[in-house]
Amino acid sequence: MSNIQTVLQIAIGFILLWVLFYFGVRPYREDAIRHRLFELRDELFLFAINGGISFDSPAYSILRGRINALIRFAHTITLSRILIFGWVRDSINEYTGKQQHRWAEGLKCLPEPSRVTVEDISNRVQLATFRHLLWGNPFTVVIYAAAFLSGTEKEEELKRARDWKIALIEEQASVAQSSERDQELQPA
Amino acid sequence: MGTPPPPRVRSKAEAEFLVRFKKLDILADAVHLIVPWGSLVAVFWFTYLMVAQLAGKATLADIGIKVMGDIKLPQVLAYLFGVSGVGYGMSERRLRRKKVEHMGGHIKALEEALDPTRSSSGLTRRGTTRPEDRI
Question: What is the pTM of this model?
Fold first, then answer.
């Protein structure tokens, strides 16, 4: 009988851990990444208020739109999603390449100091997304913890984020947001 | 009353891309759902198999009664501690969301005064995922 008791107690323990993870930890992580992105959006807004960049500038509206899309679809930033989209990324890159081109053109229009700040905010958005993604999976947590303990530089981390095509996640969120906006424009 | 904006006409390539995108999106959503619910089903299934193997001729009802009867006070206290911690965390979350709802309106109004074309994240007023965006 004691064996059955042990099995049932272990099962109850697993079920409670499951509840804690899916109703506690996961929503907390979503809120935490959203909070980080809101901070970065506020930083961009304050930079614009202080005259660093115009509210009408394409770079401002593209970056703000991208952050907004990530905030809205933060609950979909998962490793499985990036693997699925990364699998067929060539066809998606073909389309999202235009967005990247618009972003690069928008940056070119900015004076040097503004460009550096806006690019830095954009990089930190990528890093925040990358870290959120890594902390969400037990396998990647081990990799990330090892890299963190070995003192990985921010530039190195950013390079890894680019290798992982984190921009693809940003683009997915932007595409989802823009396609919905287009639907709203369609006559009922 | 203003004229509504004309509907946007999509190119064939763009439409094809969006269909492909939607298919992948559905696949990713399915994986997102299968992992948590699949793991819960697996816990129940393996528990059932192990208990059925160990139980012999005893009925599951007997086992349940005996297991519940064998629970000691320290175990009850441990469960209570865990459940109370979760309850505390959820209350704090509820309070934070109320605060977001309270402060969000002020921030929006102030920002719109400075940038009339201000775009929004599209979350609910409490800062949560919109019901139609949930997986």
Answer: 0.82
Q: Is B105 inside any structural domain? A: yes
pLDDT tens profile B77-86: 998 999 999 9
Q: Which residue, B48, B70, B92, sits at the end of a domain?
A: B70
pLDDT tens-digit readout, A89-122: 665 666 667 777 888 898 998 998 999 999 999 9
CB–CB contact B93 A76 (8 Å): no
Residue B91 shares a structural domain with residue B132:
yes
Interface test with A, best of B121, B125, B129 (most A CBs within 10 A): B121
Does one domain contain both B26 and B77? no
Our measurement of the distance from residue A84's CA atom to the centroid of its chain's CA atoms, rounded to an integer in Å, reads 16
Window 145-184 of A, Cβ < 8 Å to B: 172, 175-177, 179, 182
CA distance B1 to chain A (A): 16
Is B80 found in the same domain as B65? no
Contact (CB<8Å) B5/A75 = no
Distance between CA B42 and CA A172 in Å, rounded?
Answer: 32
Residue A9's nearest CA partner among B79, B112, B36 is B79
Residues A67, A37 contacting (CB under 8 angstroms): yes
Considering the domain architecture, whether residues B23 and B50 belong to the same structural domain is answered as yes
On whether both B46 and B80 belong to a single domain, the answer is no
**Dihedral sign of CA atoms B97, B101, B102, B105 in order:** positive
Residues B98 and B43 reside in one and the same domain: no
Q: What is the pLDDT of residue A188?
A: 33
Same domain for B117 and B86: yes
